[in-house]
Q: What sequence folds into this?
């Protein structure tokens, strides 16, 4: 779909610009044909609004002839031919509309003179060429957005590959040893085997892993870092995709606590409502911190992973207010690993 037609606000702005074009055309016609400005506007406004939709075709011409792969002369020749053809169509529409107005008695018979035809035709050629230039700008903008999106997807895939690599290293060594020990304890020390199973489960839970990470960071930052980790009993049984919270917490430390001179607290809260799991990560931030060190690839990966796993069913909101950065995740409750 044409980007201007994709949103009502864009279409309204586009047609508003063409109303201004029709006012200019009416002024030129009034001087050329000898009509009053009101009579010229009666011809120019409907004709200009019709031509506005004709000029939308310039975007499709720009898409079919990319600048990078199409010769300059071919682009110039195609642009000239399409502008001449479109302007000829516009002139035919304007002549039909003017004749209809004369037949209804809204315009004098003298308006049928040919003084307006060269004006409308030349004006139409210029407008279509301008629309073609805007079309190429829109195409270039879309290509840049697509390139940025592909780059982000590559980063997400690279991070996912890294996570799979880490998990593959963890599974055959750590898990094998744990399971082997549990198997040996089932006969010699059943209570010990049960405790080991519970500890292994706690280790693999996301909030426990985040708590261990923050314990390491507390050693690094000392008294500058406090942690407030809370979750209700219902949310403890919920699972989230592996290492989903890790980038958010790391972002809170790197781009929040690291820029503070005073003490700061990272708050992580998980709560469960019917069918939904809500996780909030808050950290203080320095309003005067370098803005280039804001949320980066890690947070973007969280958005991309949730979108890939849950589609529109997962929501990520980020806000900064009164020196506090807040990330809130809302996703469907899951008790099976993603």
A:
């Amino acid at each position: 779909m044409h980007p201007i037609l994709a949103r009502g606000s864009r279409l309204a702005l586009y047609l508003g610009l063409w109303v201004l074009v029709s006012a200019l055309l009416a002024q030129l016609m009034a001087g050329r044909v000898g009509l009053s400005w009101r009579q010229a506007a009666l011809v120019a406004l409907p004709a200009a609004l019709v031509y506005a939709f004709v000029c939308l075709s310039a975007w499709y011409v720009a898409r079919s002839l990319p600048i990078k792969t199409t010769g300059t002369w071919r682009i110039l020749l195609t642009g000239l031919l399409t502008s001449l053809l479109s302007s000829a169509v516009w002139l035919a529409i304007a002549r039909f509309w003017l004749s209809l107005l004369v037949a209804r008695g809204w315009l004098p018979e003298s308006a049928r003179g040919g003084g307006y035809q060269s004006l409308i035709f030349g004006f139409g050629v210029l407008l279509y060429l301008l629309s073609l230039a805007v079309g190429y700008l829109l195409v270039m903008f879309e290509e840049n957005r697509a390139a940025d999106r592909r780059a982000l997807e590559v980063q997400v895939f690279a991070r996912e590959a890294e996570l799979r690599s880490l998990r593959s290293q963890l599974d055959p060594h750590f898990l094998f040893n744990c399971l082997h020990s549990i198997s040996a304890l089932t006969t010699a020390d059943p209570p010990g085997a049960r405790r080991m199973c519970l500890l292994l489960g706690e280790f693999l839970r996301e909030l426990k892993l985040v708590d261990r990470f923050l314990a390491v960071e507390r050693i690094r930052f000392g008294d500058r870092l406090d942690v407030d980790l809370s979750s209700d009993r219902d949310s403890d049984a919920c699972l989230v995709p592996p290492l989903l919270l890790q980038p958010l917490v790391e972002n809170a430390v790197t781009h929040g606590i690291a820029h503070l001179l005073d003490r700061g607290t990272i708050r992580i809260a998980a709560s469960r409502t019917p069918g939904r799991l809500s996780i909030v990560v808050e950290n203080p931030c320095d309003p005067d911190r370098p803005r280039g060190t804001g949320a980066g690839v890690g947070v973007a990966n969280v958005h991309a992973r949730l979108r890939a796993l849950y589609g529109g069913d997962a929501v990520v909101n980020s806000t900064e207010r009164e020196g506090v950065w807040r990330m809130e995740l809302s996703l469907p409750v899951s008790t099976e690993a993603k």
In short: The mean pLDDT is 82.
